[in-house]
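User: Could you check the structure of this?
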Amino acid sequence: MLRQLTNIKLGGMVLIVFSIMLSACAPATVAASSMNATPCSPPTLEGNAYRQSVQPILGGYYRNAFNNPNDFQNIETIQYEAMKLLATQIERWSDSIDFSVGTKYIRATVTYLSPELIQTIILNHYLFRKNGTFLINFEAQVLSKMETIANRNEHLFFVTLIASNYEQGTSYGEQVIIQLPLQSLILTNSSNVQVDPLHDDHALEDRIDLTFAPAHGYFSFPMAITVNGNCEFLLDKTNNAHLVLSIPHITINGTNYQTRPWILDYAPPLALALDSNPMEDRLLLDRTPEHFSPDKDLPVPITPVDSEYWEKLARFIWHEMTLDP
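Assistant: Sure, the predicted structure tokens are below.
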């Protein structure tokens, strides 16, 4: 019997309650019922989320690494710090739902490919490739790379479907077949406007066989939408504390099961963040150079959900974003 488990991230119930509170406090001009919106060309270039300034900590890491390019120990130390930052970013921008299927656990994780996360991938990749040619214009180089994504005018998301274990050889054992109705996935913003995906990886809409291996793919929502005849940005950090993505059901082995939404923190009410994050210090200390590179494999097993788990997922998403090595 399939049953939904509690979200793996602590405080998930608080987020749901807080999201409901935010909806209750919405301005009186916003209709109580949801409104569907259609994509439009963004009203300004500056409002595009992927054109935001580069995080200061990234430039500091880059210059500290390559001020003395022959100090390989120093570069490795910076790689370690940058990898901790990337793992923290992946955890920060992800939410997961777990299911049990027989003796297996299935995890469906949605990760928002935020500008902060993508910028951190760029830093890690330059460190991995020992590319120290941007000491003077590192920030400009990162913004140039980000412009390719900004020009899409989409908010990008990454979904991973992983199991606690997989069958080996030709024996099917416990078969796990999943179907995600991604065209029915809805993002709801703080104004109670609901939006359908703009693009999605159609391979995820077909029969997904998790019996032997995990699955993953991209989907996106428009950067701007038409509301009451006006073209407005879908998300802004002034009003949107969370990203709420809901799907009517997930089909596993032919049976539809309802599930709670994925709820991602988008912007806190207070901007009190420092350059460092205490969560980053949870990564293990025995990291070696192979841990500072992209990884083509997803985390297995999926428990415990600890710092090493997030590092593994971070390296996989890094690999998928760059296809390198």
